[in-house]
Amino acid sequence: MKRLLLIAAATATLAGCNTSSPATAARTTPESVCSRFGYQPGTEAFSSCIAQVKDDQRTLATSYRSG
């Protein structure tokens, strides 16, 4: 599961680099990523997913900056 979230976060982070419209940016938010995984807003699982995606995005951003 964590690997899947990491891949999704990487995709979202990289997609954010090439954002050409607000609609594209909206598809890469942690909320949209978790919704695409099937989590329902307002649930504990959805909140956990968002926290994990945000953490993975920070990790990727740090790795990208230092690499």
Describe this structure in words.
There is one protein chain. The protein has one domain (about 1-65). It has four helices and no strands. It has helices at about 1-15, 20-25, 30-35, 45-65. Helix 3 packs across helix 4 (about 45-65). The N and C termini lie far apart (about 25 Å).
- Biggest sheet features: none
Main structural class: mainly alpha
Percent in helix: over 70%
| Spans of at least 5 consecutive residues with low confidence | none
Beta-strand share of residues: under 5%
Morphology: globular
Report the count of strand segments. 0
Number of helices: 4
- The number of domains is 1
Provide mean pLDDT, rounded. Answer: 80
From the N-terminal CA to the C-terminal CA, the straight-line distance is 25 Å
Spell out the helices and strands N to C.
HHHH
**Mind telling me the C-alpha Rg?**
12 Å
SSE inventory with pairings:
Layout: H1 2-17, H2 22-26, H3 30-36, H4 44-66
Helix pairs in contact: 1-4, 3-4
Keywords summarizing the entry:
single chain; about 70 residues; mainly alpha; 4 helices; about 0% strand; globular
Summarize the structure.
With about 70 residues, the chain is mostly helical. The chain is built from 4 helices and no strands.
